[in-house]
Amino acid sequence: MTTFTRMDASTAEEWALIGAETREHQGRVADRVLGLLASLADITDGFAVDQLTHSLQTATRAERDGADEQWVVASLCHDVAKAVSVPNHPRIAAEVLRPYVRPEVTSAIAAHQDFQGRHYYHYFDLDPDLRRNYRAEPWYSAAERFADEWDQTSFDPAYPTEPLAHFEDVLRSVFARPHSI
């Protein structure tokens, strides 16, 4: 345990201890994300399926389409922040994912609502082609694939969807390997 009460009074040894403790408890990240995902079962907000089912369908579609493990986990977690905030959920979810997935995946998740908006923004008098603002981005086609093929199609109560337990190992694997702080 450290003894400092201010960071500017800390030592290298104390930060080494904190780093070791953080690495030792890295598994709690996956535990917390799984808990947030499970809590989405309580949120429907008018959709035909709850937000957990939607997330599971999105991940199931990504997996069945041959997506790599980072995309499958991002597909599962793309709406996880709806557990705390719907309006800015894409950016919050992207920040949760950022230390664990490639930048293109993070960027696509951060922008996914504007890509998905093609299918519904006009109902809110918003520009349905906001995705055009991202055309120069190297991840543009990946974001289109995510939004158009996996995300916006995943509100079907009859779709054969994998359960959360099916994705637990891959989620734990991805969240066990942060590449940044």
Write the layout of secondary structure elements.
Elements: H1 12-24, H2 27-39, H3 51-64, H4 69-77, H5 89-97, H6 103-110, H7 112-116, H8 140-151, H9 164-175
Helix pairs in contact: 2-9, 3-4, 3-8, 4-9, 5-6, 6-8
* Name of the top-level CATH class: Mainly Alpha
Instruction: Supply Rg.
Output: 18 Å
Mean pLDDT over the residues: 96
- Class from helix and strand fractions: mainly alpha
Query: Biggest sheet, open or closed, and with what strands and sense?
Result: none
Question: How would you characterize the overall build of this protein?
Answer:
- With 181 residues, the protein is an all-alpha fold.
- The chain has a single domain, classed as Hypothetical protein af1432, CATH 1.10.3210.
- It is 52% helix and 0% strand.
- It is built from nine helices and no strands.
- It is globular, with a radius of gyration of 18 Å.
- The mean pLDDT is 96.
